[in-house]
Amino acid sequence: MTKHENIQMEIVATCRNIGVEAIQEYRGLDWRADVYIPNNGKPIAFEIQLSPQSLAKTLERQTKYIRDGVIGCWLFENPVPKLIEERPDLPVFYVQENEASNLIVNLGDRRKVDLQSFLENFISDNIQFKTLANTKKTQVVNLVFYDMSCWKCGELNHLFFVDTPFYSACNAKIEPDEAIWESNNMEYRPEIIELAQKYVANNKDLNLNLAQIKMRHSKTVNKSYMSFGCCKCDSIFGDFFVMEAKLELIYGPKELVFQGEIELLETIQLPIPHWCFPNNDHFCE
Question: pTM above 0.85?
Fold first, then answer.
């Protein structure tokens, strides 16, 4: 049995298991689906595309399904050239075999699920297209601590930064833009500050002198912004120097990393077009 036939038979078997009619090699007006599902007035045509096919050709074929009120769901083996981001009019997913030769569907970099689970949820409308991704409430973050001596009094301080992105319920990465002197770094969020403070308080043997975060005025850029400051004399650690130290650690060895859990005080939402398949039925948007 070829891989194409194997996928086709698994689609049919899954449909039977959930009580859904499935027709192989179904012919429409000017199209033929590998597997067609009437699906109570919301028909789905599954296309198994293991050979290379251009985006233009895929869209040409998809247009016929859209015209006839059919949801064309494409299972590709390899990435579609020039398909830069996920689209609502073109459900494209990637099917692979894992080490145990089981068929796995890849939903971008968010999730990998077995083909049967994917089919059951796609048919049941548990996988939906969303233009925005929003953070789930509970997040696991890594805090990287590093030391920096005060330029004014010489006191050794310990600063930190967040070394992990936030995630949505469907596991989309949510990384808000950060810019120096704009008070929008992740480590300036109150729930992150609280996590760092608790870690320092619970690990007194590490002798961490946590630099204090608050609004300060910088003479260098002639503006006030959230910043780290010396725990002894409160002198500002300028964002430029903090960012420089942070970049060295991002791409270099990290000596002290703490992983903890936080509850976000507010939802962060970013424009990330994607096919949303959350673990808890909490769709993005």
Answer: yes
